[in-house]
Structures are given as structure tokens and as C-alpha cells.
Amino acid sequence: EVHLVESGGSVVRPGGSLRLSCVVSGFTFDDHGMSWVRQAPGKGLEWVSGINWSADDTGYADSVKARFTISRDNAKNSLHLQMNSLRAEDTALYYCVRNKDGSYEQALDVWGQGTMVTVSS
Amino acid sequence: DIQMTQSPSSLSASVGERITITCQASQDISDYLNWYQQKPGKAPRLLIYDASNLAIGVSSRFSASGSRTEFTFTISSLQPEDTATYYCQQFETLSTFGGGTKVEIK
After folding, report:
1. Contact check, Cβ <8 Å, A106/B44
2. Does the distance separating the beta carbons of A61 and B46 come in below 8 Å?
3. Interface of A with B (CB under 8 A)
4. Which of A9, A119, B8, B13 could form a disulfide with A115 if both were Cys (CB 3.0 to 4.6 A apart)?
């Protein structure tokens, strides 16, 4: 069975940093691109960032560009999101999501349960 | 950036009724369009990929069509378990979601 388990969410002050992680199982990790999608409380979905299977292609939403960095470790079946210079508007549930094939510009076919990030003073 | 405009933002319909949601892209995205269902307190679920292809295990009550800038999503016979918020998503350039359509039973 396919599993994506996020961790690392917490309460952090504005301007602070946080590193989210996602460990996957049940499928061949390096066959798939991976993405992070977030959802602010009571709001819609926002794609945050994606990385292709080999980690040589990444993409970011304008709202997080230059502040967030996505990475993956195919040997450890893990995906990460380094978040710097956090703002109140980054407060959201962050989902780790599998892309349907090796690209991150693809359908999002398996979702984790999310990890909550709260940016507040 | 590609913007996705989804309408309506909410709708209420009776069991058995046919409902349609539209999604408009700010530029040509070919068929790089997916549809998702999100039930309260749950992660989203992929329903339709590449504009018109049903994902594995998804009921044939759901269908979708469209290309370039205009897309539609249809539930042929609304059921109580279809109560959810539905989102379109483009992946022609990076990715963008529509604002969502909340579907309720009348």
C-alpha cells in the first residue's frame, strides 16, 4: 500500500525557518515527481513546489520563490521542503503529494495527510 | 502566471440531478488539466487527469471535457457521498488550482 507521511510542521515566528519532510513507501520513489501543496485554514489549494524524479528540475510558486527550497533523497525515499523567511500567510496545512509520472508538472495522484505550519508571533 | 477561474463557487442540487462545473484558463493549456475532490477534513483525491481521463477506481458518474482554455466537469447523477469541494488544476506551466466549487445536497 502506498503511504506518504509528512513531518516537521510546528509553530514558528515570522522570519523563522522550518524544514518539512515526507517519507514514502509502497512504490518506486524515483519513478515519480513529487510536489508540495498547501491549504490555509478554510481556504483552497495552492501548489507550492515540485521536483522531478532525478532532482534536476524544480519549480516554485511565485509566493514562495527564493524563500523555499525543495529537495529529495531517492536513497532514503524522502522529500523535503526547506522554508525560510516565513510569513503569516505561509500558515497552512502542507501536503506531500506524488506526481503521476517522473515530472512534477503532472497530475497529483497520491496525497499524504498533511503537516500543519503556523507562523505567528 | 496561468490563472484558473472556476465557477460557480458553490452550488446546491438534489440527489439524482446532473451538475456541471466550469474552469477557465487565462491562456491555452491544451489538455493539461486535472480535477480533484476534497471532502471535509480529508486530503484531496484525483478524479480526472489530462482533461477527460477517469482516474483508477473513480465512479463513472464523474466525467470531464474541454481543451485550450475552457473545461467542464460533470456529475451525471448527484449522490449524497458527492458532497465535497471540487478543484481544477492546470499543469501546462508549473501548476495552479482553481478556487474550488463547494457542492452540497439540497
Report:
1. no
2. no
3. 35, 37, 44-47, 50, 59-62, 95, 100, 104-109, 111-114
4. A9
Low-confidence residues of chain B, pLDDT below 70?
none
Test the B interface: residue of A45, A64, A95, A113 with most B CBs within 10 Å? A45
DSSP chain B: ---EEEE-SEEEE-TT--EEEEEEESS--TT-EEEEEE-TTS--EEEEETTTEEPTT--TTEEEEEETTEEEEEESS--GGG-EEEEEEE-SSS-EE---EEEEE-
In angstroms, what CA-CA distances link B65 with A4, A73, B22, B45?
Answer: 30, 37, 10, 18
What's residue B71's pLDDT? 98
Which residues, at least 6 apart from B26, have a Cβ–Cβ distance to it below 8 Å? B1, B2, B3, B4, B5, B69
